[in-house]
UniProtKB/TrEMBL annotation, chain A:
GO terms for cellular component: ATP-binding cassette (ABC) transporter complex. This is Putative spermidine/putrescine transport system ATP-binding protein. Coiled coil: none annotated. SUPFAM superfamilies: MOP-like, P-loop containing nucleoside triphosphate hydrolases. GO terms for molecular function: ATP binding; ATP hydrolysis activity; transmembrane transporter activity. One of its GO terms (biological process) is quaternary ammonium group transport. PANTHER family: SPERMIDINE/PUTRESCINE IMPORT ATP-BINDING PROTEIN POTA, SPERMIDINE_PUTRESCINE IMPORT ATP-BINDING PROTEIN POTA.
TrEMBL record, chain B:
The keyword Transmembrane applies. InterPro entries: SBP, TAT_signal. Gene3D superfamilies: Periplasmic binding protein-like II. Keywords: Membrane, Signal, Transmembrane, Transmembrane helix. It comes from the Bacteria. The keyword Membrane applies. The chain crosses the membrane at residues 20-39. Pfam families: SBP_bac_8 (PF13416). This is Putative spermidine/putrescine transport system substrate-binding protein.
Automatic annotation (TrEMBL), chain C:
This is Putative spermidine/putrescine transport system permease protein. The lineage of its organism: Bacteria, Pseudomonadati, Pseudomonadota, Alphaproteobacteria, Acetobacterales. It comes from Humitalea rosea. GO terms for cellular component: plasma membrane. It is found in: Cell membrane. Gene3D superfamilies: MetI-like.
């Protein structure tokens, strides 16, 4: 059984094509990240799954049920909005209870459940506060609780972490993953951060120009990016030409010339960045092609402009689709 | 040149009016061309600001005045109440007040006006006796209310108390007056209308109106009450509290019964009510009747057995006017009574204060129609040349003597004014 | 120190304008309300007769009742109409150009003077007016409807015509500030049209509704021209009562009435502000 299935889903805004006939199957109880640069169609896709946008063509199935034309609340999805969209005039508790109120659950019951969900996101003591009296991270937890209280089969998250500072972001990331695992439902999470996708996703879906360019577990995407676009977008790869063939090589597999056999990239150093655990250097060849390497922090210092050669094992090269 | 400077200095001010007057004075006085100025010419350059009601604030008069005397009249037109306010509180905002006798009763004692020297008025002796003795003929009765002669004179130049007898100091030079009655739409009313009580005939339920100026409206109501035989007033123009109570109670009863369609306050409102057919019988002013007729709608100014409610107005001079301007003001007053204006007003259906001079400016046919109550010998034209009455028509109410001789009361201000206004407000709020 | 002086200097012009054009006239108003008067003169004094007459007269109470009923009726109607116009402009219309155009259309009634607008109702609503002629002509009624003109109906109609825009603008303004995602969030939680309206849009429009209500109520409470013209002088309002007194030179009585009206209106505004916190809007 799949939680979500998209069949040739297309979305047009006037003559502009936002989503171009995508097919996607999301397994039960999985964490999926829709990933891509802005304008790639990931948010439109999410909103079509939620029912906040109507599909132009194609079908959407949730748990095997065709929901293409159903309103959001009848789909078994719930959405957590970017910047949370909490009702500013309602307390945290009332925000969380809102979905139950709309479903006609009696007041005492819905408030009791709301408190349960606030506890789930560790916000029990702040239940009476208005959104404006909560920090960004707290607001996000309220939004999460509000989305989860209707017990959706699929939780849709639109850039849930983008408004948080980096420290909080890492913490919330863990928490999202924990919740997903505990609740056993599917999360579909839109992000433009490959790091987030890597960290969270069971299935990462990389999109570009309204199409899915690769949908696979993060490790597979990282190790075998389907195209130069994917390799570049997820980062950590050099994309180089090998005759007519494009290849990618992970930057952490590159090293300074140590005399060993293998492909090389010769040029001079344009940038040196000390990153703590590693050192990143960028080497520009005569013809202008760049390659970079993540070197151990024990590497001896290297000066800008100095001639340098990067080398790697031929076996680490990954041939890219055209 | 000194006079010029004085004038200019006095007139130069932040107001637009001042600036205009200054410009006018500068150009007219020859200051630009440098010709020497002389006294008589200076009078010709004077601008007098006249505040008055729409009844006589007529541009044609100002234009003729300019032509005949050279004096520029700046007319400001407002309603009766606003004029009273202006005269009582902003005395420097006008030079000449064109004001009703009932208003002068309130305003003169404030001390913003100056007494007019009768000796400087050329035609003073020819003024219709209504304004001097209160009697149209030596034998006629003095009507109730604020009869003009009771507020027309003061003892001397500075006194503010009215004198019951003629003196040499006048508060106003009478200019215009008339007798008001009910106006009706003869095309919509089939039976003859003869009495004030017809205003409250249930046949006209929802189609009657009365004017909402308390001092006048209550007198119309009093005429109706007397006509119905419900009450006899000692003086309809000066009611007792009990009389006021009974009159307003009567009005409220009529209002509750739905007799009235509306109450009007301005000339235009009364015209619109009548012309649109919303109202078919109401207290009305004679030029308003003419205005309805000029739209091609039948409208009669209906003489009534109980007589008319009359009103009169005149010109007064503000206290601050002096010197050259005062000379000009007297010049203007004398011009007003010298005939042209009288004829002009008579032709509108009003009456002028000096009949002899007006007669010189009217054709015999006009005189016979307007003043003598005779059938029009020729078509009667309005001042603008439009046909007003076809040949053969007789004026509503007949001759001057018939009309002004049948005045039952004058528009007035009562001693119980304050109480009356309260009761009137109660009636409107009921 | 210098900062403080600058602040005072910056605040001074407005403070001066307010003092000269608001505080001083109000002070004079209050002072005059204790004056005595006769038919033409103000008599400086300190008497309570004006207030005694205001409160002691049944006319005052009846007139206030009438004015309140006008204000309440007009408020309800302008709120209903204004809310939906604002809703339509804010949520249904897409595109700024179209919205601006429709807004301009809403202001058409204000392109002519108040008086002309009111006078224009006469040939439309009158006994022989367009509407009655159309209704009689179509056979819908036998007799012209008299209540259309010179009645409370006419007064309220004119008020609604005049003041609905004052309700539309602030409500529209608050609606435009509502994050559209809030509505999606409510829909996502299962709210239909009416429940989105009741649970999300309406509560968030409260400041706009409050501001619009203050506009409308204050305008209606102080009106005298509309009531007089549209009722054909048959209905009273507090403003009309004051206007009558002014025109009869009874300034102290008018001042006392005005002070009372001011107090009443301020209390109404205070009551609205107690219910809704409009500071969010400012």
């Amino acid at each position: 059984m799949r939680d979500v299935e998209l069949v040739a889903v297309t979305k047009r805004y006037g003559s502009a094509l936002a989503v171009d006939g995508i097919d996607l199957a999301i397994p039960e109880g999985s964490y999926t990240c829709l990933l891509g640069p802005s304008g790639c169609g990931k948010t439109s896709t999410l909103r079509m799954i939620a029912g906040h946008e109507m599909v132009s063509e194609g079908e959407i199935l949730l748990a095997g049920r065709n929901v293409t034309t159903l309103p959001p609340a009848q789909r078994g999805t719930a959405m957590m909005f970017q910047s949370y969209a909490l009702f500013p005039h309602l307390s945290a508790r009332d925000n969380v209870a809102f979905g139950l109120r709309m479903r006609g659950v009696a007041k005492a019951e819905r408030l009791r459940r709301a408190d349960e969900f606030l506890d789930l996101v560790h916000l029990g003591p702040l239940a009476d506060r208005l959104p404006a009296q909560l920090s960004g991270g707290q607001q996000q937890r309220v939004a999460l609780a509000r989305a989860l209280i209707t017990e959706p089969r699929v939780l849709l998250l639109d850039e849930p972490l983008s408004a948080l500072d980096p420290f909080l972001r890492a913490k919330m990331r863990e928490e999202l993953k924990r919740l997903q695992r505990e609740l056993g439902i599917s999360f579909i999470h839109v992000t433009h951060s490959q790091e987030e996708a890597m960290a969270l996703a069971d299935l990462a879906v990389v999109m570009d120009h309204g199409r899915i360019v690769q949908a696979a577990p993060p490790r597979q995407i990282f190790e075998r990016p389907a195209s130069a676009f994917v390799a570049r977008f997820i980062g950590g790869h050099n994309v180089l030409a090998r005759g007519a063939q494009a290849i990618s090589i992970r930057t952490d597999r590159c090293r300074l010339d140590d005399g060993a056999e293998g492909p090389r990239h010769h040029g001079h150093v344009r940038a040196v960045e000390y990153l703590g655990a590693a050192m990143r250097i960028v080497v520009v060849a005569e013809d202008g092609t760049e390659a970079e390497a993540m070197l151990p922090d024990s590497t001896p210092p290297i000066a800008l402009g100095e001639a340098a050669t990067l080398t790697w094992n031929a076996a680490d090269e990954h041939a890219l689709a055209a | 040149m000194t006079d010029m400077t004085r004038n200019a200095g006095k007139k130069a001010g932040p107001t637009r009016r001042g600036a205009l007057a200054l410009a006018g004075a500068a150009i007219g006085s020859g200051a630009i061309t440098g010709f020497p100025t002389i006294w008589a010419q200076n009078i010709r350059n004077i601008t007098l600001r006249q505040a008055g009601t729409g009844v006589s604030g007529l541009n044609a008069i100002a234009e003729q005045c300019k032509k005949d005397t050279g004096i520029t009249l700046q007319l400001t037109v407002m309603d009766t109440d606003a004029l009273a306010q202006r005269a009582a509180t902003q005395a420097r905002s006008f030079d000449i007040a064109d004001i009703e006798y009932m208003t002068i009763k309130k305003v003169y004692p404030v001390g913003n006006m100056q007494a007019i020297d009768r000796k400087r008025i050329t035609n003073a002796d020819k003024i219709v006796p209504i304004f001097t003795t209160g009697r149209l003929t030596p034998t006629s009765n003095i009507a109730q209310g604020t009869a003009p002669h009771t507020v027309g004179f003061v003892a001397n130049k500075t006194a503010t108390a009215f004198q019951p007898q003629q003196t040499d100091w006048m508060t106003l030079i009478p200019t215009i007056y008339n007798a008001d009655t009910l106006g009706i739409r003869p095309d919509l009313i089939s039976r003859p209308i003869r009495n004030w009580k017809d205003l409250v005939d249930p046949a006209f339920k929802g189609k009657a109106s009365i004017l909402n100026i308390p001092g006048i409206g209550i007198m119309d109501a009093a005429m109706v009450m007397e006509s119905l035989g419900q009450l006899r007033y000692a003086d309809k123009g000066n009611m007792t509290r009990a009389e006021i109570d009974r009159t307003t109670a009567f009005l409220m009863e009529q209002k509750r019964a739905g007799q009235f369609r509306a109450f009007w306050k301005t000339f235009d409102e009364s015209v619109n009510l009548m012309a649109s057919g919303e109202v078919i019988i109401q207290s009305m002013w004679s030029p308003a009747v003419a205005a309805v007729r000029s739209r091609g709608i039948a409208c009669t100014y209906q003489p009534l057995e109980e007589g008319y409610r009359a009103w009169g107005g005149g010109l007064g001079i503000a206290k601050h006017v002096s010197g050259l301007e005062l000379d000009a003001a007297y010049e203007y007053l004398n011009w007003y009574l010298s005939g042209w204006t009288g004829a002009y007003l008579n032709r509108q259906g009003y009456y002028s204060a000096v009949l002899d001079t007006a007669k010189n400016f009217m054709s015999p046919a006009e005189w016979d129609f307007w003043m003598e109550g005779k059938p029009a010998a020729v078509d009667i034209l309005a001042p603008d040349g439009k046909l007003m009455e076809k040949a053969g028509t007789v004026r509503d109410g007949g001759s001057f003597t018939e009309r002004m001789g049948a005045v039952a009361c004058w528009n007035s201000v009562m001693s119980e004014d304050r109480y009356m206004v309260q009761k009137w407000n109660e009636f409107i709020a009921s | 120190m210098r900062g403080a002086v600058t602040s005072w200097l910056l605040a001074a012009p407005l403070a001066l304008v307010l003092a000269v054009f608001l505080v001083v006239p109000l002070f004079v108003l209050v002072v005059v309300s204790f004056y005595d008067y006769d038919s033409v003169r103000l008599i400086p004094d300190f008497v309570f007769t004006n207030y005694i007459e205001v409160f002691g007269s049944m006319v005052t109470w009846r007139t206030y009742a009438k004015t309140f009923s006008f204000a309440a009726t007009v408020w309800v109607i302008t709120l209903l109409i204004g809310f939906w116009i604002a809703y339509y402009l804010a949520f249904v219309i897409e595109g700024t150009g179209k919205r601006t155009l429709l807004f301009l259309i809403c202001t058409i009634p204000f392109w002519t003077s108040n008086l002309i607008r009111m006078i224009a109702w006469v040939p439309f609503l009158g006994r022989n007016g367009l509407l009655n002629r159309a209704l009689v002509g179509s056979g819908a009624i036998d007799q012209p409807l008299e209540f259309l003109l010179f009645s409370d109906f006419a007064v309220i109609l004119a008020f609604v015509h005049l003041y609905t825009l004052f309700m539309v603008v602030p409500i529209f303004n608050t609606m435009m500030r509502i994050d559209r995602r809030l509505i999606e969030a409510a829909v996502d939680a299962g709210a239909g049209f009416w429940r989105v309206l009741w649970h999300v849009i309406l509560p968030l429009c409260k400041p706009g509704i409050a501001i619009g209500s203050i506009f409308v109520i204050v305008l209606v409470m102080g009106d005298f021209a509309t009531v007089r013209l549209m009722s054909g002088g048959q209905s009273a309002s507090v403003g009309l009562m004051i206007s009558n007194q002014i025109s009869l030179l009874q300034y102290p009585a008018a001042a006392a009435n005005a002070v009372v009206l001011l107090a009443v209106v301020l209390m109404m505004v205070a009551a609205i502000l107690r219910v809704v916190d409009i500071r969010k809007e400012l």
